[in-house]
Amino acid sequence: MTRGxxxxxxxxxxxxxxxxxxxxxxxxxxxxxxxVIPLARPALDxxxxxxxxxxCLLGVVAVEAMLRDGGIGRELIRGPGTALVxxxxxxxxxxxxxxxxxxxxSLHFPYTAPSVLPGEVAIEFGLTGxxxxxxxxxxxxVDGIWQVGRMIAGGQCERGIVLAVETFVECExxxxxxxxxxxxxxxxxxxxxxxxxxxxxxxxxxxxTPALLERQVDTRVGRTMAGAPLAELALARAAASRRALxxxxxxxxxxxxxxxxxxxxxxx
Amino acid sequence: MATPIGLDLxxxxxxxxxxxxxxxxxxxxxxxxxRVGRGGEIxxxxxxxxxxxxxxxxxxxxxxADLRARTRVDAAADRIAVxxxxxxxxxxxxxxxxxxxxxxxxxxDGLYDSPAHALAAWLGARGPVLTVSSACASGATALGxxxxxxxxxxxxxxxxxxxxxxxxxxxxxxxxxxxxARERVRPFDRRRTGLLLGEAxxxxxxxxxxxxxxxxxxxxxxxxxxxxxxxxxxxxxxxxGLQSAIRAALAAGDVGVADIDFxxxxxxxxxLNDRIETAALRRVLGNRAGAVPVNSIKGxxxxxxxxxxxxxxxxxxxxxxxxxxxxxxxxxxxxxxxxLDYVAAVCRPVRPRxxxxxxxxxxxxxxxLVLEAIP
Lengths: 268, 375
Description:
Chain A is α/β, with parallel strands linked by helices. Chain A is 32% helix and 25% strand. Chain A has one domain: Thiolase/Chalcone synthase (Peroxisomal Thiolase, Chain A, domain 1, 3-Layer(aba) Sandwich), CATH 3.40.47.
């Protein structure tokens, strides 16, 4: 890689609340036996969103949360200079189940495609740069962060957004069948990281052992699949860390990436 | 590969050159309530895929068996990546799960990344397993991501490509959108009325140039992508995202427009796509636009969604190897709004060296590949 990359801002919304402050010390205990800790449908008005699904709106508000965290205006990310990487293991499940369950519901078929969530985000924020959409759990998020770093290094973009959305409520019954594979609680998450140019390239490990931050997120957030590595970055940024090793485990593989984190903007 | 016109590379290629028709009445699930009940259905899977629970995984394994019959997938297990593109993943398994199949694995099989993991297990690959889902542009991006993993030294081999299954879920969807043609698919033709869907899988083995041993089909010189940021279900009216993706792919491959000998178009056969894609290609190709042959193979067996771009990339490389460009099945009457040099009716004796392949998908996804044949 010819250019480095660093995390500029992080937005995190989970079923526990906005940011890292509401996260419990022990997600399993806090869940009190609940299988899913849900996120509410964001209240975004307007004709443009009349067909948008809950998960699409969550993607939009995650980007807004990231912009607030970085003290960044929308104009910075608008245009071809910003790459968009979307990762999810399950956010398409709600629309897929709805489409299968209804013969003529109100759902517009294109919204069953995972690519429509980042498509809505791209429209909302005017993102016309390169994109990658990865389906999978936490490893996909780590792979996605690496992709953004690679695109910055290669000059394909000036900065990149990694967006993860995971929703579970609509498919809770199905997830319960697989409880042996995914011990709960399943915590809905919409998280977004802005990666910009930095001094040092991210160190990516396609095969790794779980990092301390991953274990912390598992304990404090619960199961959030693709959202986990971004939640790890939120924890690291909240702790004023200037460099973090984050990892993600999914289907028996753990991937990790170590990268720099920018300081928070001074607010006066 | 596994397609409606052939269950291996040789059958696929000879079928394309012969103008084979892989479209037929769908038999595997009911279509009586739909306006259109035809598509590119694979009537019989190869033996290697029989007994695999998920049809999506079965299609991938069928393609992998064909690949392994032609080349050695030979590297340390943790240095082999699997990168596949799909628009639908294991959604048919979700359909089964909701229909009362209570097997706990059915729910997990419904996840879009499950077929890729089934493929990795079949191959014995333990490197990164990535599923790309940028709708009908997925297969192109998957090849690009596989190449990125190789260039970065993350792995030594990447089994990359795309797949999708023709199932009731997607037939109902496109039927509701009124996007399906009642008669034949006619890409770029004046009488075109829509697309037909198909199912297929296609995989290639990617390896770094320096590590290549034995015969090779070609090179992936560059790939590019760009978001339209304009509409969820329709391409940008000016084709701006597609132009950006093409230019990015050309730049990544350090290839100029003058070097492109052939374009494999997305060419779905819908009124809008073909007109906008033509205009975008005309803008990028400039004064060479009328001189570069263009085809679409979707008239032969339908739009195979996540598999389409991989099949088209393979077709490009085979054209360069053998010196024949397959015809655009269904193209007969020129449309003034589609004024490129389409390869019509019969295959054309041209040996392209450098090729451009374009793909578009729901959500404003655009992707392009620049390929080079090794004759």
